[in-house]
Each structure stands twice: as C-alpha cells, then as structure tokens.
Amino acid sequence: MGKWQRSLYQPVLPLGKDGKRVTGSAEHIALSRKAAGEGMVLVKNENDTLPLAKGTKVALFGKGTIDYVKGGGGSGDVTVAYIRNFYEGMKIKEAEGEVSLFHELPEFYEKNVKEQYAAGAVPGMTREPEVPDELVTKAKAYTDTAIITICRFSGEGWDRKCQINDEGYELFEDEKKQIELSASIFENGDFCLTNGEAAMVEKVKANFKNVIVVMNVGGMVDTSWFKDCKEIPAVLMAWQGGMEGGLAAADVVTGDVNPSGKLVDTYAATLEDYPSTENFHKSVYYVDYNEDIYVGYRYFETIPGAAEKVNYPFGFGLSYTSFETEVLGAEEKDGKIVVKAAVTNTGKRAGKEVVQLYYGAPQGKLGKPAKELGAYRKTRLLQPGETQRVVLSFTVEDMASFDDLGKVAKSAYVLEAGSYVFYVGNNVRDAKKLDFTYDLAEAEVTAQYTSLAAPHKLEKRLLADGTYEALPTDNGPVEEEGLERQDKLTLEGFLPAVKAQERKSFGELMEAAKTNPNLMNVVEGKETLDEFVDKLPTEALIHLLGGQPNTGVANTFGMGNLPEYGIPNIMTADGPAGLRIQPQCGVNTTAWPCATLLACTWDPELIEEIGKAGGEEVKENNIGIWLTPAVNIHRSPLCGRNFEYYSEDPLVAGKSGAAMVRGMQSERIGASVKHFCCNNKETNRKDSDSRVSERALREIYLKAFEIIVKEADPYTIMSSYNLINGVQASENKDLLTGILRGEWDFKGMVTTDWWTHGEHYRETKAGNDIKMANGYEERVQEAFEKGYITRDEIALCAKRILTMILRMD
Ligand code: BGC
Q1: Which domain of life does this protein belong to (predicted)?
Q2: DSSP 128-145
Q3: Which of 41, 99, 382, 725 has the fewest CB atoms within 10 Å, measured from its CB?
C-alpha cells in the first residue's frame, strides 16, 4: 500500500485475511468477551456458592439484569451492533442445560427497562422498579437461589455525586441536566445503592437462601452492604464488560470461566474513608491533593488506623480453585531485584493466579508507603496439580523517592539508607514478607533533576505517620507578557475551517507539484525534514499547529492537511472502550470492556492483543490516531471518568497502558496517551486547578505516563484540560518540555485535549504541538508579528507533528 494511501483516498480496504472487514468482526467480539471474563473479580464466595451447580434454578433480580451498561459515556462510548445483557447470557446457559431460569422476573424487568428507554433514559440511568410481591412469591416457590444485578453508568463532564458550591460558577446547560438527573436517580450518590435498589435487595434477602450479587459497575462503589452480610454469600464484580459483558458474567457465574481478575483499587467501607473525598468538592476551582503520595492502598496500608477501613484490598480476587505460591529465591542482581516463585494449582479446577511483588522502602527522612507494587505476573491457565515458575523483577532505582523539599537531596530521586523489604502474594494485604532484604548503608541519589511544576497554594500534605507537614506557598507564577487572553467562549466547540483551494488547471497543479516543497521528498530520502520545514512559509507552519476538518467517518478531526506541500490530513478517533464512530455513519465497531476491567486482568499480553485488534479497526476505517489509552489515576471514587482509566496504582496503569500502546502501534496507528495529567475530576474540568506536590506528581500522577513513554514510545500524548499548580496543562512548559521531553526523552508530539481554555500560541511555546480540535492561526500569527513567539518555536512544534505523520503507513 502506498504511503498515506488510507488518509489520502479513504479506500474501502478490509484488513481481514480473507478480504473481510475486521471492524466489529466475530473474532474481535469474541476477544472482547474473553477479556471481559478475565477481568471480572470474584470478591466473595462463601460455601462455594459459585459456580452455580449444574441444573441450579435461578431467579434474576434487579433491572440491571436487563439494563446492561457496556461502558461509560462521552468519548468512552462506542457504537455497536448489539449489547448482550446478563439475562441473555443466562438464557444461553439455560439452553446449554447448565441452569434453569424463572423467566417471569427478567421479563418484568425487560418491559420496565424498555419503557424507561422509550422515555429517554440511557443504560444505567434508569430507576429500580418495585418488584411485585406476587412475582417474588412465585420465584420463591421456584427456587432458593437469586442473582441480583446492580448497574452504574458515569461519563465525561460530570462527577459521581456532584456538588456545586456557591462560588459563582455557572454550569453549561448539559452539565446541569446530567448532574440533576444523576442526583434525582441516585439519592445517596451513585457510590451507594439507591433507596429502590436497597429495598429490592432486602426483599430478595428475606426470601432466598442463596443470594448472589453481580456488579455491573465502572469502578469503586460501596461494598459494605454485602461484605459481611450473611444472606449474600457471593459477589462478582463484573464491571462494565463491553458489548458481550453480560455473556461473560454468565460464563463466570456458571463456572465456564474461572475468575482470575484482581482488584486494581482499594474498596473502603465508606466513601468518606478515602482521603480524597473530603476536599473533592471543596471548590469548583481547585482540588488540593493533600493526601500526597498516599493514594489508594498506599494510604490504607500505611496511615495508622486506615487498614481497618478496607473492605477489599488492592490486588484481591478469588478463584474457583486454590493456589500455593512458593518463593524459590530473591536477590539483587545487576541493579535489579529478582524474585523467583513457583505457583501450583492446588484445587480441582483449571485456573490462573496473579503473583504480586511489593517492596517497602525504609521510612528515612522522606517517609514511604508501607508497600508499593514493584512487579506482577499472571500465570497461564494451570490445570489442577500443575506448577508454573515465574520470575518477577524491577530495578533498585524504581524504589527511589522524589525529594522535592531537599530533605536528603533537593529535586533528586533518592534511595534512603536502610533495609528495603519485599512481599509476595496475591493481594497487598496478605502478601508475605520475604527473608531477603536489600540493605543500603548510605543514601544514594539515583537521578538529579530540577524543581518543576511546583505547587504554590497547596498548604499541607500527609506524611506516613498520619500527620501533615506544611508546604511552602507563594503567589504563584507570573504570566509572561503577551496578547490579552481570548474570551473562553471563543474557545468552545469551534470546528476547523475547511480551506478553499483556488481554481487551478491540471497544468498549474503539475507545475506546482514540481516546484513546491513536498513531504514525500522526505519520505523518499531526497531531503531531510529540517530542510523541508525550512522551505515552508511561516503561515503554513502555523496552519499545522491546529486541528483539521473531518473526513470519512471521523468525528474528532484531523492533523496535517496541507495538500499543496504533500502533507496528508490524518484523522483522529476516540476512545478507550473502542473505536468510536458516530451512529449515523452506519459503522458498528467492537466495544471492549472498560479500562478498569482490562487492568483487573493483570495481563498486559491480553491488553496488547486488544490494542492490536482495536488498532486494526481504527486503521480499516482510515483513521490514523486513536485517542487512547487514558491513564489517569483513580484518585477518588467520585471521578466521573474512572471507568476510562485503569487503576489507583501507577505501575498497573503504566503497564496496562504500555501494552495497549504496543498493540495498537504494531498496526502503525498512533496512540494518544491521555490526559497528561491530574485530570481526576470532571466538574469544571477545563478550569479546575489540581494543586499537588512535585513528589506526588512524579511518583503517582506522572508515573504511568513515564512508564508508557519509556516502554512503548507513543506517537502522541494528550495534555489535559485542567491546570496543574496554577498553570493550564496545555501551557505547562515544566511538564511538557521539562519533564516529558527533558527528563524522559519523549520523541512524539503533544496534542491538547479538545477545545482547551489555553491560549494557542502560549501552548505552542510550552511544547504543546497542536491545538485540537481547532487552532487559532490568526492568534499565533499576531503573536508572531508582535514578537511573542518566534518562527523557531513554531517550527519545532510543526516538525514534531510532521515526524508523527511520517511514522504512519
Ligand atoms: C475528551 C478526550 C477526547 C476528546 C475527543 C474530550 O472531551 O476529554 O478524552 O479524546 O474529547 O473526543
């Protein structure tokens, strides 16, 4: 295929071996279902309630049985041919003779949910109907086993349990509608059961002996209503499992799939137990990250008194079989901690186990989390009695901490003196301490950097002993002189201009082709990119710095688009759950399980396979850049977009994201790793300031991006909407140039998120190469003419965009 043929001509060229389309193909959907089964987490299973014994009679309760939520909303949504709910899954199992169902109940819910959809509700934003007593009585006469399904939906632009303070902030109309709707359905916030759900649960508990719960949710929710509840012996966290998630959940409850997923977040007893909750809604204009590096299990396993607040620890998940993990040896070799272990399936069913290696660095002067995940490995499917040896390793340097205040060495990564300890197990709480320690007599600096993106208004941060330390504050950065900032409304939702081409004869066109600089000359090695860029007029370079009109089935716009210089218009598309094409195009794609579920597989190889399959769909539809993976940290259960993100732990997020990028870029589809960084709240997402220490930035919020940059070389990174310590992410030179390029040697290009509130030329100066979805050429041109930006600064970003385009097929 000729270079850029897909972008230039939008051919209908299927990628399947037999000339068939791969988009939304049976093979891809089967992979989606398989992944869904691999990431579901069994958190409770008393008396071997699950898997259901062959022939079990089952009553299905809850509108979630029908109202299946395949994934979250906004750019994380996907247009699909169909969605399979849990009832459909169980009907297949009934047809296969595994269970029998009391159909009247799901039929009742089916009718009710249909009516709610017809009245405008979307999946997950429906109300729990009161189940008639006579149906309960009939169901009780039929069986003593009930399965309750609870579902949840969230999306872009609003948080779970929103609260707007009286700070003069005006909501957009659609934000307001969504927040009001959510508040009216979820009286207690969607973390908790609604009153209707709670009443249904009580009714089921009162009437059935075996009550099983299936949670079709995007992440952290209340688990206290079932954790110690005797009447509920089994619970499956089935997540939002993509288009066949309902089938995958049925696979797991019937035992056709043995669950092997593990939690990637800590499940605390109440929402208030998460340290991030207190400040989450304090202001609409800023969030203080006072808990610092103590996010998720780093908080719950370290801070005195926090451990008992945990219902289910990070890394936890049950299986229908049992495993024994024997540590065969641990050592430090060539700067690496290496642990060898043997995992044996000691139960009666084939299954997979995840071996997790944690380290604990000495408290020293900086203070450290009690345990931090250093490496993990999922086994293959082990038959009963079968053993697999695994090797886990990470570098000694990975255990260093960032010393932002200079307690040991200012702005350096330091390994403090003392004993480093290690733990191996299948969740953070139960991991066993090894005899082996790594001992350091004196503190060592592993990397010396400078202070970047420091906080100005964050007054205090949490320490390992549960006290707070005061942080230095000041008035914040002083903005460089320049153009008066644009009114925000002129930055919202504009489409890129479609450039007119003057009337030309074929002769003139051919003449221009001979004389104009042409990017193809760079492809063919006739000139260097620098030589090519030097020949382009400044206006052409400025044109490259903004989003370009959609072509074909794209709806999130393109990059490039200077046909007179041989530069194609490369299309972009969302998103983390699959290629998102708008319904009116008539193209259905594969909806993969949500990112949280994928992370719960703890299986980077499987995620890589999905990245490749998804990348093929992107390519087949003539799109070049896939706006995924999204790797923000699950800082708070309240963030509306957690389902799109992987984990509370940067290593899991980084390894999962890197696998995704490797898979998709093997198809030469550019990844856009987002949202760089600290986009952990959706309310007022374009103007909320994330106030965070340099240490927490580097050890928690930037870490996943760092791993992905170093392991997978993504073509692009998307900066986030929010501010970080007073500076818009897209204008944040410290982050985009200082850390991303200076420290990590990132070779790709940076895009803004779509329609940021940043000033275009200031973004360019910071190293944010392109403004999406639309650039403001006239503003950059004016800034150039007034001397606020140089041609070199413009050319540098243009060159990075062209380098990215040159990497495409
Ligand atoms: C989202 C991004 C998305 C982009 C394009 C933005 O609103 O934050 O994640 O990729 O839109 O749809």
Answers
A1: Bacteria
A2: PPPPPHHHHHHHHHH-SE
A3: 382
